[in-house]
Amino acid sequence: MTPTRKKSGTSKARTAKTARAAAPKPRSKPKGVADIALEAIEDMKGVNVKVVDVRRVTDIADTMIIASGTSDRHVRAIAGRVVEKCKAAGHQPLGVEGEREGEWVLVDLQDVIVHLMLPRIREFYGLEKLWDLRPRPREASAV
Q: pLDDT tens for residues 62-110?
């Protein structure tokens, strides 16, 4: 009688490991330009980031992203990162306005418009209120 070798559990572990490695990985949804811009703003510690869907209001863009920076230098740096990341992903901005002053920088990414502002400028212009479509209760009129 020939001695049989006891099989260890390592061969099963190896088989399971190679099966997992050979299995196709699920594809993640490709990032859109809005996702890339939001990631860049987050990387640069943008403050009070708001995403506004403007498809029902205008045909110039689908989404507006509004964020603040803590200083004019910070606003310019955030805008630079947004442009850099979008270009690297193959989305060439149509234009960038306001970089020189740095109080309000607008980055036009075709379907997405990014507004980066100082808090006082943002409060003064109130873009969130301007583009918000939620119904507001009407005040009773005095007759």
A: 999 999 999 999 999 999 999 999 999 999 999 999 999 999 999 999 9
* Dihedral of alpha carbons 82, 84, 90, 91, sign: positive
Pair type for strands 112-117 and 47-53: unpaired
Span 9-44, pLDDT tens digits? 555 555 555 555 555 555 555 678 999 999 999 999
Tell me if 64 sits within 8 A of 113, measured CB to CB: yes
Single pTM value for the model: 0.72
| Gap between the Cα atoms of 139 and 142, Å rounded | 9
Residue 64: inside a domain: yes
Residues whose CB is less than 8 angstroms from the CB of residue 75 and which lie 6 or more positions away in sequence, other chains included: 68, 69, 102, 103, 104, 105, 116, 117, 118
For residue 123, the enclosing domain spans 33-131
User: How many domains is the chain built from?
Assistant: 1
- Inside any domain, residue 58: yes
